[in-house]
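User: Here's a chain of 280 residues. Predict its fold as tokens.
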Amino acid sequence: MNSTLPPSPEPGTPDPSFAPQFGAPENAAVPAPPAKKRRKWFIAAGCGCLAILALAIAGCIAIVATSSDDGEEPTSTTEAAPAVTEEDTAEEDAVQEDVAAEEEGSEDAAEDPASEEPADEAAPAEDDVPSEYTSALNSAETYSEIMHMSKQGLFDQLTSEYADQFSEEAAQYAVDNIEADWNDNALKSAESYSDTLHLSKQGIYDQLTSEYGDQFTEEQAQYAIDTIEADWNQNALESARSYRDTMDMSPEAIRDQLSSPYGDQFTQEQADYAVENLDG
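Assistant: Prediction complete.
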């Protein structure tokens, strides 16, 4: 059967339908070239744009996810707190009071650690006391028993460069540990001043409290002159006789010396008694 179709051109030969038309008019339109290759280029370019767009979207998603992880804190769901009753409030207050009491007790114990330690640990053992301290204590006891010194008088005697020359630490140990009745020492000193020097009541007080004298406290000196049994008129008379016999003073001069605030400090009545009885 003979085909009426025109024979197909051989490969590599130009298509006669696309052959240039010679003799065509000068302004006639030229037929467009085939668009197969341009379509392929458009398809490739579109695929590339899609790929770039996909990469950009993926990058934005990653950035947003990272920023949300760094900046936002996870939110936790809160549940509604149960209603607080008066019993619960009372229990909480009781617990808080117990805790406050325990803390206060612990603070008191911390502020006064010595109260937790036995009292025996504060005092040094006898074997730990230096021999100088023991000697100072023995000397202080002797001065107290024989000379009836005050506490300050003992300290000065023990540390004096003209007397015992103990160190201040040893002397302080001695006066802190001696068992002495300072009121009784003041009384015995007052009795000695009355019996040997025939001092007045005010004169004895001044001698007991003077920083250049016995250095008893005012309370100890007051105890002594309130307790001493002395005849102040007789003391004034003995002093008057001493002024007359040793200094050849007149009766009026003796009267002034006995009653002067810068002299013996007897009362005016005691001075008058002494002058009136000089020749008795």
